Amino acid sequence: MRQTLPVLLCLAAVSSAAETYSNAAIRSGPEPGVRFSSGLMVCDETLRNGHWMNRYWLATGLIKPEFHLPAGRATPDSFELAIEGQELGGSWRWEGASEKALHNPEALDVAVTLASSARPIKLVVHTVMTGGPVMVRWLEITNTGAKPTAITRVSPWSGELWDTAQYRERLAPGQAAFEFAYAQYQEWGHEGAWRFEPLSNTTKTVAGTRGRSGWGHPTFFARNNATGEWFVASLGWSGNWSMSLTGDEQPNDRARLSFRLGPAAADPVLRVVAPGETVKTGETHMLLMNADLDHVIQALHEHVRRNVLPPPIPGREYQVESNHRGYIVDHEDEAGLKREVDLAASVGAEEFLIDAGWYGPEPNRWAQNVGDWYAGAWLPNDITPVREYARKKGMLFGLWVEIESVGSAARLRKEHPDWVLTRNGKPVGGGRQLDFANPAVAAWAEAEIARIIRKYDLDMFRLDYNTTVEEGGNRPRDGFLENTEWRHVEALYAMFDRLRAQFPRVIFQNCAGGGGRLDLGIMRRFHNTELSDWMRGPRNLKILNGMTWILPPEILLRTFGTEVGEHATDGDLDQQLRTTMLCRPIFRGLSPSMDEFNPIARRKIQQAVREFKDEVRPIMIGSRVYHHTPAPPMMEASPWLVLEYATPDSRRAVVGLFRTSHEGDSTFRLFPRGLDFGRAYRVKFGNSGQTVEIPGDRLLQQGLPIRIENAMGSELLIFESK
């Protein structure tokens, strides 16, 4: 018996592809299975000898005939699940499959139900075909037994990616069949540091071990050098994780690549499952394309925009923001906050957010007072007058909250010492982390956020998370010692799912010590995110360059100003502003007061904001991103960094060119990639203000030489079709 449900649509939305296609072919019989088709991406999986395994992947949209498929070769399972240390691969039996359309009309969810003969476990394998070259998978795990049991290992998606024949004739001498890129660092201020490594008869394992998805990211890019194909896998999970890739170049001229990617924990038990309980893993997002890296990235961006991010709130999209700087100055009272509102309004900000430090019994102790979410005594009229003042200036208003943490001086910590995260009975991370695995704590946090939003009638809510707990907490549960991270992430996700539904007009911002949680799991719950706390160039540029491999630029927040001291002061003013303008600008610490605001600097900032609103922002929203310098080394000098954003219709583009060191030539010949040969373009040069008209064929064939003499110098080009 075969079942098929195709979904074929021609879409007029902002997209690099005009068509979407989703199809599931469900097979019954001795080896039941499913062939998933999404765009030109095809994945065929089957149940063989109790193993759910991959038969093949294709990036062409074509289907392999049954007689071409090997009948006996075993491949790694397409997911992994261990219960109490026992791997269940080899024990699965087919229970059936179903399919349903989702809210996105081009998407189709296929649910395959399996049962284990080794353990009382029922499993539903969900695979969503998005219509493009990305599929999404997660597992629902149900304990059908009478006793609690424990998940000790899980990977929502794993298995063999490529089995490439006659690969050697297509490679240069000494070239590996496969290579992959991964986030090289797990430290603050190193977001987006991609490192390429070959995979030749070796296994490479990378892990996030900071108690969050981390400044390094649970994502890899794998390239088949023999076929030109790319695989991208990204785990939507905001806790610790582990991934491994194995390259196998065989004597029979076949090269194979397999992988696993899933959550990880320092304790053997990731999650206890009660009798009758069903738990859900994080999502794995998988992309397969035969294309260059930029087109792969563009397809990933389109998937994130269409299928991951909450939809933008009409009238509140992608605005210029200003934050107060109260936690780094001696004192910030109501008058001081209103001065900062004036400064924000003077440069054209559209949002004003009060950052850390507005709460607690004493000023200037923002970290120690976290957890007491009441305005401090230095604000006798509370926050409301500042909010109303900002709104009179035409700005939306928001507050910063770090709801998962509690400071050493907080009243909350004294009243509920049992609410902090513990490991083997001792507080973790200096006792700052609240334990959301405790339902009472999670319920308090959700109610507290709702109270703050209602009390202050917020337009924006900014979540931060500065605590590093590494191994995380644990506690005895039903005879097991369970790591608490899974339950914490579950509670966090469910909380913000409900809060967004409860407050549909509130903009929810994500931050975690900068970019410490940029995974697709957290981004499914938030409209935009802080990119990084690192402000010093050229690393801030490299962070932006790297993170736009995964996330579209219009949702990335970048702070400009002097409040973080030395991190923000390198490079000339134009370079600093342009770095900020290539994502969502946040202004913070512009000047102590309007009287002390350098008028020349103020005019430059005002001009940059106007340019962002009038020219850059309309291009950036929904843009195709081109990385002319794809992966410069994060911690080493590199001569240039060049980013291009182009509208899908190729009528407009913005290009930022930055000379990041004195290494190399002072001239960069730019060949714009997002323009149209057949058009003529008006090109505006930011440094000179001059405008010239250039035919598209000349731009694309001969290039445009841009000379920048000084290190940390920059140029901003605006292209507009005549």
Keywords:
single chain; 722 residues; alpha+beta; Beta-galactosidase, Chain A, domain 5; TIM Barrel; Immunoglobulin-like; 3 domains; ten-stranded antiparallel β-sheet; eight-stranded parallel β-barrel; 44 strands; 19% helix; 36% strand; globular; disordered N terminus
Report the total helices: 12
CATH topology of the largest domain: Beta-galactosidase, Chain A, domain 5
The parts where pLDDT drops under 50 for at least 5 residues are 1-17
Strand content: 35-45%
Radius of gyration: 26 Å
Describe the largest sheet: 10 strands, antiparallel
CATH architecture of the largest domain: Distorted Sandwich
How far apart, in Å, are the first and last alpha carbons?
A: 57 Å
Question: What is the percent of helical residues?
Answer: 10-25%
Please give the number of β-strands. 44
Shape, please? globular
CATH class bucket of the largest domain: Mainly Beta
Category from helices, strands and their pairing: alpha+beta
Mean of pLDDT? 92
CATH homology-level superfamily of the largest domain: alpha-galactosidase from lactobacil brevis
Model description:
The chain is an alpha+beta fold. It has 3 domains: 2-308, alpha-galactosidase from lactobacil brevis (Beta-galactosidase, Chain A, domain 5, Distorted Sandwich); 321-620, Alpha-Beta Barrel (TIM Barrel), CATH 3.20.20.70; 625-721, Golgi alpha-mannosidase II (Immunoglobulin-like), CATH 2.60.40. Helices cover 19% and strands 36% of the residues. The strands form 9 sheets. Strands 9, 10, 11, 12, 15, 16, 18, 19, 23 and 24 form a 10-stranded antiparallel sheet that branches. Strands 25-26-27-30-33-34-35-36 form an 8-stranded parallel β-barrel. Strands 1, 2, 3, 4, 5 and 6 form a 6-stranded antiparallel sheet that branches. A hairpin with a 2-residue loop joins strand 28 (422-423) and strand 29. The longest helix has 22 residues, at 599-620. Residues 1-17 have low confidence and may be disordered.
